[in-house]
Design a protein that fits this description.
By secondary structure, the chain is an alpha+beta fold. The protein is built from eleven helices and 36 strands. The chain is globular.
Amino acid sequence: MSFRVNPYLQQPSSDGIYITWFGETNAAGEVSITGPGLDAPLTFTTTPTFEPLLSYTNAELNQEIDGLEQGSWLLDDENYKHTVDVSGLSPDSTYTYTVTVGDEVFEASFTTAPTAEDWDEIRFIALSDSETEPRGRVRQRDWQQGALDADSLARPSTEDSLWAENLGVAGDRLNYPLTETVGYRENLEIINSRDPDFLVMPGDLMQGGGYQPGWDEFFRHNAGEFDSGLSEYALLPALGNWENFGALNGGYGFDDDGRFGPLFGRQKFDVYFDAPENGTPEHQDNYYRIDYGPITILTLDSSNGEPDDRRDNYGGEGQPPQISGQEFTEPGTDTQQNFTREEYEAAGGTDLADFNPGSPQWNWVIEQLEDARESGQIIFAQWHHAPYSSGTHGLPMNHENSSGQGGTPMRQYHPLFEEYGVAAVFSGHSEMFERSFVDEDNDGSGVYYYDVGVAGDGMRGQRTDETGELLNYNPFSQWTADQDEPELWAEVDGVPQIIAGGKHYGHLEVNLERLDGPDGGAEITFTPVYSFPVLDSNYELIDTERRVYGDEIVITTNAEGVVVPESEPTFTEIVDLTGFDGDVTAELTLSREAAFDNILKFYETDAEGTVAGLKPGDVGYEDAVRTALIDELELFVANRAIADESIVLTGGTYYAPALLVDGNIHNLITLDDGVTGISSIEREGNEWRFEDWTDFDFNDFVLNINSLA
């Protein structure tokens, strides 16, 4: 067999593509390209290079995996790399290419990017944390319990249910019904059916960058025997923590043969992927820019922050204190405590890039932002460690429950991104599906942050505290799959089946459509997609269905590529009566479960929560609210009671709620809390929920607006 890895695409542009494949012999390859603008086929002859870094180690050759025949996942141990850098093609045009090596022929097609000036529609996919490995063929991950729909049956028992018997459990959790391999395969099948223009993968492609069988499995899915989507569309990968891990070959340290795991893993990544130059040769392939028509994608390396930091730098004698609960003091400087620059360079590495202010990577990002904004591009960014996360890796290094791999240091980039109008950032790492929105200056224009770590590995959700309650550490979170898409279980053919909702393998589909008219611009739709498993009465897989979560977001940009602020209120907690004239009667239902005799009042504001020229978060905001409270509107309900009320408001403006905790005007819950600390107000539809203390059950005062007339 001549193709160890099928041809796969990188570096998409409006006039070309970069084609790579790996063979098992030293035979030259022939590439022939046909399509628009070519009077004769464009041909290339390759000179393969042997890549000894991809050879199996003794630990890999001798590995045993329960449930698999020993070594059945290994390929022939030869790795010859072929590359072709194609240019001179026409924009937005489809070409057929044929790769011939010996007697074997591979044929596929690709479409060049449009130009920034002439385009109609673009579709790309973002997902991460596939973390492929041979063990994934037989392993099902534990499925963290999410929210349950009010009409749902309970999940099957972990002790005596058919689910537990046939699919297994992990401790007190059910196993997910699909293996990692099947889950990722079905996810990719949906992606490939959508014909994306390119794929963004912010890290953790395989289960250990230094683990060759993990890479083999990744390419089996993406450019090999399982499927070959990357032969049709380009991949834009980022380095993740697993790319910095040697697995059997040293982990985060050294193996018996002297290999330093993080260096070995990053070296393999560099063999497989070739990025455009970034101006710092020693950092080649770590961070890079791709322009796809009107889109600019900045890929960063979030692997190493300096000064290095560790969890055990806090809480000891003479050390800074540890924080706990929902406390947040600073983002920190480092996303991993596993190895230092000193250790990395002592092992021979020269490519480790710091991401903090003043570093070459930081300065490069500023240069790219300036250039992309000046060029009117729509800017996206990706890196691995999610800066805003409700999940496993959402806590900073100085938190007592930190994983030691928290992404909070990457928050340092947000002011830059807000200044230059970045539309969205894609990350992973916590292995959950989450959307956050950050608008530090409250002008209505912020940045969407997505954790898309749902490719095919862990099935995690929001982190809980020691009592099992949701920690809600990320105040910028607006949606998570496991909490905002409740599981709905029902009896089907005599057994409980999940029929809707829940956390599943999936991806984010991003569609851009050019807007006509004198103002130009684009509409961007972010669609969270999941692969829903349909099971028979024995919990065997029948099929998977492409389903869309209920959190599709649509934003628009102007002709300069800058996101246009929404005309809707900046804070969803605001009551919008701008569509009414004259008096508006509001029919309300109130309830409460709280020891405090809380009182709800309102004040007039604008879409940004402004009072007396002050916005939420400004010094003196609460004092301004106290002065602006409408005296005649005062809502109260007894503890554990429900009351119906009717109030009259003046239409044509906005109103914001303020909770007087225990009736004390000097102890207010306002919009300000969500900016300066942890939000104490939640809204879902026509229901407002308030938190007066620290248990965050959000039932200390509940307001339902039943009608407005």
